Amino acid sequence: MHFDFLKSRALAAALLAVVLLSAPQASAAAEKRLITETDLFDFKWIAGPQISPDGQHVVFVRVTVNEKKDGYDTALWIVGTDGKEPARQFTSGPRDGSPRWSPDGSRLAFARAVEKDGKPQPPQIYVISLAGGEAVAVTDLPRGAGGPVWSPDGRTLAFTSGANEKDLAKQAREKDKDKDKAKAKEGEEERESDVRVITQATYRFDGGGYDDPTRPNHIWTVAVPAPGAKASEPKQITQGEFDEGGMDWSPDGSLLYFVSNRVKEPYYVAPDADLYSVAAGGGEIRRVVSIDGGIEDFSLSPDGKRIAFVGTLNANPTRSHNQTDLFVVDAAPGATAKNLTVDYDGDVGAGLAADQHPP
Fold it and tell me: pTM of the entire structure?
């Protein structure tokens, strides 16, 4: 998350306009008809545009409908910002997303979900060179990985994963069996129960399935291997029972900042997500910024001394809608945030809620 996140949204709109304007125009004499449900199969979306560090290219996710599998296919495409070179497909897909440029613009990190026995597996983090070649997986976690963020020096990727100790132990046992199948005994593997014990009021999400409180999303890091080198083992940076996300590195690469709501059942109280930091190598978590409300997007200044963020202050009495504002604060524990848009009658940031959006 950087200061150009609004610029990226504007670029997405511009790219979509180019696609629409460049599409063949229907003949005036063509017969008009109403839209039908099968027209959905011809729709194409542009999602998640990311501008290269030198400003010369944009990588984006191209989304199409897979009629046979009743779902969506995604692949990474790339296009020049001068409007002269046509967009071209950069990865094969069909389940690639979340592209992120390396600081020097020579590589891309992205999430890819491969198929095994005809079923999509949890997504993993891959890295591919802009010079060409095959994408290389840098994670292999049992519950998948997502949201890659490059360190300032381009040597490390931070990401989130919900894998817990049981998942990792099971994966290790399976790898041991593959190494020596002759020693594996049937029935030796402990079966995980499929019985769900519901202990929370909010336990599932529309389109997302059942929530699993035993597998919160934590922050991990992994060293990016040199070309031809073997991938390193990922390292878990944060622990505990709460989700962490929306992370970014400090400019010097020494800290990881993230947003977290550290309340066991947050749906019973007003929103209260705070901004935290942890050493890049792991350690004690420190709360950096707290307001009476929720913190969303944030960005550090180039010198790492200040933080800008979008936040929503809770109202008393409670209202059906609270306005988002833009805040700045010193990047030091206990600093008081200043609301820059207290007199602005409108929401800061942008969002879209609809059924017709990229996955």
Answer: 0.83
